[in-house]
Amino acid sequence: MRAIRLLLSITIVVSLSHLVLGRAPASPPEETNDARLKDADAAVLVQRFEQWTTTELRKMDPVGELYLQPDNGDKATDSYSWGRVVSTPENEKERRKTADPLPSHVEELLSPDPQFDARHYVLRFIRHDSVNGIPVSIYETHSRGDYDGFEGQVALDRQGFVWRYIGSRRAVDSLLSKWSGHWRKRRFVYSGWRARLRGGSLYTTDVFIQETPGLNSPPQFSRRGRMRLWNFGKTRAEQARAELQVVDDNERPLGGRSSEENERQWMRDVEDYVLDVLTRDGYLAPEGTFETSCAQVISNLLAVARFPEPIDPPVRCRVLLSSRLDLRLLGHTMLISIGSLDTAGDEATVATILAHGLAEMATKPLPITAKVAFAKRPPLELLAALETKPSDEEAVDKAALALLSKSLYRSKLEQAGLFLDGINDVSPRLSTLVPRTFAGHIGDTAGVLRQSEWMRQRPVYDPMRLGHFSALPLGSRMALNRETNQVDLLRAPLVPLVGKSFGVVPPYPYPNDAEVNAPLVSRVGSD
Ligand SMILES: [Zn+2]
User: Fold this and answer.
1) CA of 388 to the centre of ligand 1 (A)
2) Which among 119, 70, 143 has a CA at the least distance from the CA of 426?
3) What is the pTM of this model?
4) Using one digit for the tens of pLDDT, what is the confidence trace for 244-256?
């Protein structure tokens, strides 16, 4: 009888909220009022939740990146991929065309076990805790009998939501070992954080990965990685409709102007087209407040430049959502990655990176590549087409130095010099995070900038010295809204960590940062 009454009240609540909200609320299994669940009931709740959240995820089209960083002195490869996370037949086609695609079944990392079945698990309550201010119960989770499942902990709230999980699973070990090019299976611990996005559903937005060292590994061994997801603002259906609009929007006729003006307008049209594709597909942040600060840096540099002719169309800046260090030129639009902005220790360092881009535009005006002009190509192919091999970099660096030495940044360039030292030092080891294409352009390999009077006085580069750093760890400066893909500077203190320049640190994401209007941002967590 009690069960029937409970069912009835759930039905009423559900139909009421349906009326109020105009649509069925995204809700996982029914609420429980017991302060303490029976361990067996907790297992059933986790099963229902994981099945529900896996289904919810497949309605969405998140973009994600996966990065695994080798340890100091370790010969393991540096592995990075990004792209669409949920595999569908179309995505698979796109993945096959990409040079380094996300591994298939990467979704395994987004759950303790996407096929979580309560019959295969034993849960044991350990303690009460909180995740992002939400009270949760932490359960130790083991697989039963021969089942090769998740071994670790899950954080379950009273409504049956799993907010966090940390542990290991064979399927994840195989996936990461294979993807990072290991023949023998490595063991990993992975930890996922979830956030309430898109009208109430819960999605995994951040995963921290740490390799479990073998017995013969050095004691300080700390191979780490992370996965980050965004683009939760649109469902898969909405994303598909948005893609179709791109081509329609841009078929504008030209005319009534001089041929030179038309040429410039054509260039801007091509830039806008590529920016639209990259933004709508979730690889580029939409224009927002951050671009204004970036534009300020550019105008600080150009204010004193004595270019024979002004750069026209005017220079713009947009943010690529990748943690990989990147600066690409799309005509007169600079695409700078979150990774570059994150790791650059101060504004003068950001200015040094952007000065290189401006110097490229001034010294070797590149015609915008026909490969990207209104071509229907997957976004990662468009991006690849914008990559240029370093050439005649000394001349570019001289032009960059001319800009910097007249700018308001000139007295603050020592940190930037250390950043350039760092780029040259880590690029061979972190060959996907700091690829040669980036180091060859930005790294000042000939020392034009670093031997100049503005950088010469910098401290001697020593990545292990206390209080001394060349770059910040990943995730230090930039906040990313996981629904809108907007970026902004994080209002958290900048904390350089010894030996962690360009390093991976555990993200401790927290929701509702009103200032950046972000449902979820990442900040540095020290370990
Ligand atoms: Zn260059």
Assistant:
1) 8
2) 70
3) 0.85
4) 555 444 445 555 6
Q: Going by C-beta distance under 8 Å and a sequence separation of 6 or more, which residues neighbour residue 437?
A: 387, 388, 389, 390
Residue 469 lies in a domain: yes
Residue 39 has pLDDT above 70, yes or no: yes
Q: Would you say residue 146 lies in a domain?
A: yes
In the chain, the number of structural domains is 2
Same domain, 342 and 436: yes
The whole-number average pLDDT for the span 419-429 is 95
CA–CA distance, 87 with 85 (Å, rounded to integer): 6
CA of 333 to the centre of ligand 1 (A): 15
172-194 pLDDT tens trace: 999 999 998 887 888 999 999 99
**Structural domain boundaries enclosing 366:** 237-521
Mean pLDDT, rounded, of the chain: 84
**Segment 25-35 mean pLDDT:** 48
Instruction: Say how many Å lie between the CA of residue 76 and the centre of ligand 1.
Output: 29
428 and 342 inside one domain:
yes
**Residue 7 within a domain:** no
Which residues are close to ligand 1, an ion, with C-beta < 5 A? 396, 441
DSSP one-letter string for 45-56 = HHHHHHHHHHHH
Q: What separation in Å is there between the alpha carbon of 408 and the centre of ligand 1?
A: 22
